[in-house]
Amino acid sequence: MKKQFLKLLMLGAFATTMTIAGCSKDQQTPEPEENLGDSNRWITLSGAIMGTTAGDGNGGTMVYSVSVNDAKDPNKSISVYDNGFPVRSQRTARLQSSNDGSTLFNIAYTGPNGGEFSKYKVNGGASYSELSDKVNIASYATASPRWVKLFDNDQTGIAVNVSGVKITTGANGTYAYARGTSTVLSLNLQAAGIKTYEQYEIPLSTTEEAQGFYIGRLDGPVLNKAGNKLIIGASRSKYNPATGVADNTGTVKIASKSVVVDYPSLKNPKVISSTVSQGNTNGYRSFNAFLAEDGNIYQATQNGTAGSHILKIGQNNEYDNTYVFSLDAALGVTGTYVDAWRYAGNGIGIVAYSVADKGGYLARIDLNAKTATKIAIPDDADLSFGQYQGFVVNGDEVFVAVTPVGKDGNIYIINSRTGTLTKGAKLLNKAGNHYIGVF
Question: How far apart are CA 204 and CA 208, in angstroms?
């Protein structure tokens, strides 16, 4: 039997009413969403405006939508900064889009509207109609939550945050551990309401906490094949136990971690560890883990001691430490860092990465063969995918926006099956700005 409950909450200074809807216990088993491609969909370009420093993206976000055919046409020119629509956010908006590109989802990041979830109907060009249903989650996940949508046909978004980290001392006044309050919150994307949320402290092992480690960020949640667990990526921060001062020099690392919680209740957090990598698994502003057709989850790492890895989480919701996929080894370089990536189906992914904190590159990876091939976009020292958010997978084609900071660039289209690269529309830029995604 499906059980639902309804209650009203009051948020902020206004009496904002929102629905908290309970989820069905007969949870539908998710599958990777089949994408046959749609030549009639909109593709939204997103551009970040500089704040005080070129490339910082702190001045807000502009969007502009084009047809698939225009996005693929190298004779077309697009200027999101001259002709686009400003999405509400004081800094870089956290954007997602519906599968068909017809709706843009946004959570404003910091500022007076920080934490506000809103939706826009995509009409083409600079025409975006803001829909009336919205909800502010700042009271739960702060004004700067991180979030992604689940791959459940645009039904649910998951916002996460870690706040209020504090050091606890033992009876003799010596350092014991540091922990923050972790929030995991599920959003109804269709009716713009909070489904449910949970808050808890999530400890690491006694040994790891004694060394000063704690969970500093959560991000990149993904739903498992059974539909009963969320796997949430985590970064580890560190204090010096002797001084109580932050110590993130990176000279000491511990195993990569993720947090597993029950779904849809979001209860019972459990930490799982990898022996393959010592990197973080939270990503930054994009998806960082995906459910593949084989029923396993594949997750990228960042800041590891030996470059980035793609980790495998089995259907038992534990890391499969027999699966070793080093991006350094696959590309024959040292110091890879996955800024963002997107699973394209059939075991293939497109990865945006840097090498030793320099440059911006794309690669096509094969999760089954554990191989990576660099994609031949132009090299440019000013190209960075550090704030990159969105790829569009349309059938076999993956659309990526590529612009060095302050320079014009292009949309590039990669055929995920063949690896063929096509240059699409020209992207006109402004000083200090860069394009950060397609949706």
Answer: 6
